[in-house]
Amino acid sequence: MPSITQPAAPCHIPANTNEEILLGVDTHKDFHAAAIVTVLGATLDGRTFPATTEGYRQLVSWARSFGALRRAGVECTGSYGAALARILRAEGIEVTEVNQPDKAARRRRGKTDAVDAEAAARAVLSGRATATAKTSDGPIEALRLLKLAKASEIKSRTQAINQLKSVLISAEAALRESLAGLSNPHLFKRCAELDDSRGDGPADTARHVLKLLAGRIQHLTGEIDNLNGRRQRLNSGLLGVFGIRADRAAEATALLLDPQPAGLAVLTAREIIVEADREDIQAGIDGEAFTLPAPVRCRIERRALRVPRRRPGVPQARPAWTGGMCAGSQ
Fold first, then answer.
1. Residues with Cβ < 8 Å from 164, sequence gap 6 or more?
2. If you average pLDDT over residues 219-244, what whole number do you get?
3. pTM of the predicted model as reported, rounded to 2 decimal places
């Protein structure tokens, strides 16, 4: 691992700076290993760079000193290589996601960072790696982060609610009776207002724990509401449409696997009407299969795709579709 910033100058004098070269990068938390390969398969050089803004700048400058850099193969573009992939795209370089080399190749060639970086470049050159790396810089990435945080908040709140009700079961009778019959919001509010300064006995400790758990539940609920508010601001109000027309399943699969399919169209609209020459249409809604009567009208409805779960403090969600209507959210 390099401890100091390396100079960006190449270790050679390029013969032809207009010749196309490919960049391969094996990414790590603190540093990235890079390799340069020509379109004829010759390895020119390899070097490691720190995973910092200055390190990314030096990596790009170093790679371009060998020739025209238009394509790059990068491992782990969704984690360690995400920042580097954004820098490369900003420089007009096409970034391809590269999976780690298979075990047979590693046994033959060994396992080092330099070997993996070279293998990444060769995967792009041979056409084995064709998946375009995700941009991770638009509303989809923002929604992913919000969903990640919200899932954690909901899990923690559910755990706190279960703990609060477990403490209530074994609490003294007078305390249980004073809190009986309350809805969840009112129960949490009453528990948060309990006087826990009387003593250190089991009953007083139970009051103290109930107050702490209720305060935690209210705090987590506020954070969930905050995340929901940010999500609504990201909602563009447009329904994403992903349409495939194929006569056989193999044709549909080929379209999905092709990085630049000719028969694939991605559009946006506020409402979609799907008609068919039959009475029913097979549809997939939020990961579930349904048979809906034709025609099917799809439109945006806020929070329509929430999965109904009977959780304390969570209102019952509306169904995602009724009859021949299906609703989506973004």
1. 187, 188, 191, 210, 213, 214, 217
2. 74
3. 0.58
Same domain, 268 and 176: no
- Domain match, 117 and 145 both: no
User: For 99, how many CA atoms within 13 A lie in the half-sphere containing its CB?
Assistant: 9
Instruction: Return d(Cα 264, Cα 259) in angstroms, integer.
Output: 10
Enter the tokens of residue 230: 């940010």
C-alpha triplet 256, 258, 260: angle, nearest 5°:
110
Tens of pLDDT, residue by residue over 33-56, are: 999 999 998 999 999 999 999 999
Residue 26 and residue 122: Cα distance in Å, rounded?
A: 12
- Which residues neighbour 137 within 8 Å (Cβ) at sequence distance 6 or greater? 86
**What domain range includes position 285?**
239-328
Q: CB 325: neighbour CB atoms within 10 A?
A: 15
CA gap 14, 20 in Å, rounded: 12
In a domain, 64, yes or no: yes
Query: What confidence tens digit (pLDDT) does each residue in 52-63 have?
Result: 999 999 999 999
Whichever domain contains 99, its CATH number is 3.30.420.40
Average pLDDT over residues 98-125: 79
Instruction: Give mean pLDDT, residues 74-90.
Output: 90
Q: Answer yes or no: is 304 within a domain.
A: yes
Pairing relationship of beta strands 264-269 and 43-50 according to DSSP bridges: unpaired
Q: End of a domain among 218, 234, 250?
A: 234
In this prediction, residue 257 has a pLDDT band, given cuts at 50, 70 and 90, of confident
Alpha helices in the chain (DSSP H): 53-64, 82-90, 103-109, 113-126, 139-169, 173-179, 184-192, 202-234, 249-257
